[in-house]
Amino acid sequence: MAREPVSRPLYLGPRLKRLRRELGLTQQAMAEELAISPSYIALLERNQRPLTADLLLRLARTYRLDMADLAAEERDDYARRLSEVLRDPIFAEIDLPALEVADVATSYPGITEAMLRLHTAYMREQQALAGLRAGAGTDAASDPVGEARRFVAARRNYFPTLDSKAEALSEEIDKAGGSAEWLRRQGVRLRLLPADVMMGALRRYDRHAEQLLLEETLPLQARTWQIALHIAYTALRPDIAALVRGESFASETAAQLVRRALAAYAAAALIMPYDRFARAVEAHAYDMDALAGRFGASFEQVAHRLTTLNRPGQERVPFFFIRVDAAGNVSKRLDGAGFPFAAHGGGCPLWTLHDVFRRPGEVLTQWLELPDGQRFFSIARSVTSGGGSWGRPAAVRAIALACAAEHAPRLVYAQGPQPEPTPIGVTCRLCNRAACTARAEPPLGREILPDDYRRTAEPFTFAES
């Protein structure tokens, strides 16, 4: 007679804790919704109690989750991953029996997760160091941000399925009388709550109570954006998932960054539907403040949306987009218009992108000329995020759009006499302009002359060859 399989206790501590954090719940709040004690939640998360079948069903019903996903054997996965990490030659001299490894993974999931994170960070640093030594930069696994940017650039920052679905959904929302009423018809209530109740979140979707919660001090444009993001993550989830599934990423971080980028793209398409926005762009000659007012969007959202108007046969001006902080760190870059921005190292200080911090809120325009003679037109301005109330920090960044000079006459910003372009370089290491007082370092391949007897205004003087 065949023996019935013996069911093993189900320990899902890390998964339960991750779920709770994703839902933005405290242990107290989850305990109340599941009708159990907070101390029991704490024991479950520490793997000191197994998850019962009844509680598993309750979790699935309360938060509308797939029970098969919840019940997946995370313990075995942890043990497998930890075993793979411990096969690294760095641990070669240590006796690590398989039973001990499995016991650590089962009994101490927090320690296991910490070990896995440390080893992942160690491997990425090793790969980056090896790439630098070989002069080849870093690989995709150690640069998830670069991989996500390449994914977007390869598609010219244009995703037709998201645009068409968002356009139809936007019309449906307008007919319903706005996003709040449309959400209500979907069974979702929109609520504004104080910052202390939101516990640091700007937006949280309470799947148990079917409520979309927003921090009450968000300005109107930010509120509109967060609602659009929620709709993108829910109503357009299958379309976003299909795009992510269709690609093989070197790391889960890269996949998550792409998913976030696609959700932001869909949210922008909901607020600024392609056809309507493209017509308005021409009518207002790319005036971003006018477009922001017309669509209830921010200056940065409009600038970002301008880079996506690449529908075949209906293309608008191709733009390069960049966002940097005061230290020069690039937090967003959308490659387009053939503008050669340096992937590593500082940009050119002569570009007005770096001046906007001294002139907040002012639009600065500039004609640019690269060392090879290419000319571009640039629009730069500072933007602020965060803040909203006394004592809350705000982040000030600079954004810029750049297009090839031949497209500039279509922009309201380029009307009137054209001044002489500012000579700039991609980065000092790649710029051979000798007469530049702003230079930080000599270009590659150029020998500098001694300044024992003669010193010029420029930091370096170069030999002829």
From TrEMBL:
Tell me which residues make up the HTH cro/C1-type domain: 16-70
The answer to whether UniProt assigns keyword Transcription to this entry is yes
Write the protein's name.
Short-chain fatty acyl-CoA regulator family protein
Q: Which family does it belong to?
A: Belongs to the short-chain fatty acyl-CoA assimilation regulator (ScfR) family.
In the record, what lineage is assigned to the organism producing the protein? Bacteria, Pseudomonadati, Pseudomonadota, Alphaproteobacteria, Sphingomonadales
The record's listing under Gene3D superfamilies reads:
lambda repressor-like DNA-binding domains
Keyword field contains Disulfide bond: no
Please provide the record's keywords in A-Z order.
DNA-binding, Transcription, Transcription regulation
